[in-house]
Structures are given as C-alpha cells and as structure tokens.
Write a structure and sequence with these properties.
Helix content is 48%, strand content 18%. The protein is built from twelve helices and eleven strands. It has a six-stranded antiparallel sheet with strand order 1-2-11-10-7-8. It has a five-stranded antiparallel sheet with strand order 3-4-5-6-9, with helices on one face. The two termini are 50 Å apart.
C-alpha cells in the first residue's frame, strides 16, 4: 500500500515540525504528543519497514530533545518513549489491516474486470472498412459494469449495432444486460430486417422478465438504439426505442442529432401494448462518424442542474483539436467526450455511461 512519493514525506514533515516546536517553546513544554502523530500518519502511507523506521526516528528525536531540555527522566522521558513505541506498534497493526482490505478490494476489482470482459466484451476495432471504438464508465467504481451495454456484430445482413440501457444500475442490472446481449447476438444473425430483430428482442426480454418475476416482470425495460450499416457503408438504418439519439459527425466535426421520425417506447414493454418500430435511414458519407451513447451522458448535470448537451459540446472539442493537430480517431472522440462530461459534472459519474463510435474512413 505504497502512496505517491510526496505523500510519503508527510511523517517526516511531522517530525520536523515537532523539532521546531520543541526548540521554540520553553523546556518544560514537550513535543512528544506531536511526535506520536508521525507513526500514525505513516500507517496508510508507508510499508512495514517505513512505519518502523518512522517510529524509531520519532523515539530517537524525542530522546535527543528531552536530553537537551534536561527532562529525560522516568516520569516524562521514559514514559513518552513507551508511548511512542506503543503508537508505532499500533500503526503497524493499522497498516496490516488496511493492506488486507486493499487486497480484498483489488481481488474484487479483478473479478469484476473479468466479469465485464465476459458479459460486455469490447467490440473489434475494425469490421471491414468500419472503424470502431467503445468506452464504458460505470457509476459505481467497485462494480466495473452496470446496466448499460453495447454490441457490434457482423451479420449476413450487414454490420448491426445495439447500444442500450436497462432499468436499474450496478451489479443488479448485469443479468438483464446479459439477456439483452444474448438475444441480440442470436437475433442479429437470424432476422432479415430491423423490425424483425426488434421483435425478437421484445420476446427475449419478456421471457427474461417472466423468469425473474416480481417488479422486474412489470417494470423491467431497456432503452435501445439499434443500427444497421449498408454493405457499402453509404447509409445507416436506425430503430430508436426510447434512447438518446446518436450524433452523426461529418469530416469538419459538425454534429447532427439523428432524431427518430416516430417516438417508440423502450423494449420490454410490449405487455402494455404494441408499437411500431419505424426504421429511419440516414446517409453515412465518407469521413463520417456515428457516436452513440446512453443517458449517462445526456443526463449528466453540473452544480446548477444544467444537463450536458453533446450535440453542442462535441463539435467544440473536435474543432479545437482540428486546429492543433490531426483529426480525432473514434477512440479519441470518445475519450474527449467523457473527459468533458467529467469536467461538466465535477468529476463524478452520476450514472453508467456507455459510448460507441463508428467511423467510415474517406479512403
């Protein structure tokens, strides 16, 4: 549990402060209480040897200062030495306890990372001429994965994509994410068109809700954006089921929100009625990038409650980059976007954030 180098000097700084305090105060005022702070400060900052070294240094400094003041006797000097020794032992115990907790946390994060790769694998960086980048930022740091999802799959009908957000967040939503991804991977290879694909997803979500029962059966749903790219990448067909519209960026970084022609509710709500799944077709010219994201981006708020607007902010970020260097790659676009959202919110993710960028190169 070694901390950054600057922080490791804090215990030494405490000892130096104790020396200065002792030298500028009368001889009957001792700095021993301040010296006892040094081993405690070292507990979360240094390793075992460092803590012992700080404790021994504190005892040595106290002995020298007490000798200079003429106060090194059993009543004050020896008693303070015993106190410093006891505090050093206590600091070692605290350090071992913290180290055990950190080790448990590291193992949990490793398990979560493996689960994330298994449940939500990163899409390939390239499918044919299509360049792909994905980014996931969980709201709960310990969870590593939550209720947002993305998937890109090459099918007999072209490259198909889904970005979604299941009801809920954190580990409780992982099973729903797994069901969505499994249903999509199967249906994407079987359904001849996007309405058929959406219908298969609806049936899969209803079956999953029935198995889970309770509130999940009545209120479980998934907002989803489902896209299909033409074989020559000249167009993209989109079905939007209650999801934030994606942005289409041209070569100059101008952003256009691809709004649906007809509103449709999220997936998994067909028990309440039936809705059409209108397919909207948009041109996808050379040099264009389709940026998809979940509502963790669009509903991110600053201290004044103002929502983040990627359609306004992202072109400004890319315009600045174009002035200072090469055009941004799909991965750079996503990282620039997520960093800007972090600045907007003050650095704390308020909801899971899943982002996907798909780029058609000019050549």
């Amino acid at each position: 549990m070694v901390q950054p180098r600057r922080a490791q000097w804090i215990p030494v700084g405490v000892i130096v402060l104790a020396v200065v305090f002792d030298l500028v105060t009368p001889t009957d005022v001792t700095s021993a209480p301040l010296l006892t702070v040094a081993p405690v400060a070292a507990a979360p900052l240094l390793g075992l040897r460092g803590i012992i070294a700080v404790g021994l240094l504190s005892m040595a400094v106290h002995a020298v200062l007490a000798h200079l003041d003429g106060t090194f006797g059993w009543e004050r000097g020896a008693a303070n030495q015993i106190t410093l020794l006891a505090v050093t032992v206590l600091a070692v115990f605290i350090n071992r306890t913290l180290e055990g907790q950190h080790a448990t946390t590291r193992r949990a994060r490793q398990v979560a990372a493996v689960a994330q790769r298994a449940v939500l694998p990163r899409p390939p960086s390239r499918l044919g001429d299509l360049r792909i980048a994905a980014l996931y930022v969980p709201a709960e740091d310990e969870a590593m994965i939550g209720g947002d999802l993305y998937v890109v799959q090459e099918t007999p009908f072209g490259t198909r994509v889904m970005v979604g957000d299941v009801r809920g967040k954190g580990l409780g939503a992982v099973s729903a994410v797994s069901a969505d991804l499994g249903a999509f991977r199967y249906a994407a290879d079987q359904a001849e068109d996007l309405p058929g694909l959406v219908l298969s997803l609806e049936h899969a979500l209803l079956r999953e809700g029935g198995r889970r029962g309770g509130q999940e059966q009545e209120e479980g749903f998934t907002t989803a954006l489902i896209a299909e790219f033409a074989a020559d990448l000249t167009a993209v067909r989109i079905v939007n089921r209650g999801h934030p519209p994606p942005l289409l960026l041209d070569e100059q970084g101008v952003a256009t929100a691809l709004e649906p022609s007809e509103e449709a509710p999220p997936l998994g709500m067909s028990a309440l009625g039936t809705w059409r799944s209108p397919v909207d077709t948009f041109p996808f010219p050379p040099g264009a990038t389709l940026v998809c994201f979940t509502d963790g981006i669009t509903e991110a708020r600053d201290v004044n409650g103002t929502f983040y607007d990627p359609a306004v902010r992202l072109p400004e970020l890319l315009r600045h980059r174009a002035l200072v260097g090469e055009p941004a790659t799909p991965a750079q676009i996503l990282h620039a976007l997520i960093e800007d959202v972090g600045r907007h919110t003050g650095g704390r993710a308020q909801d899971d954030q899943a982002l996907l960028a798909l780029h058609r190169p000019r050549h």
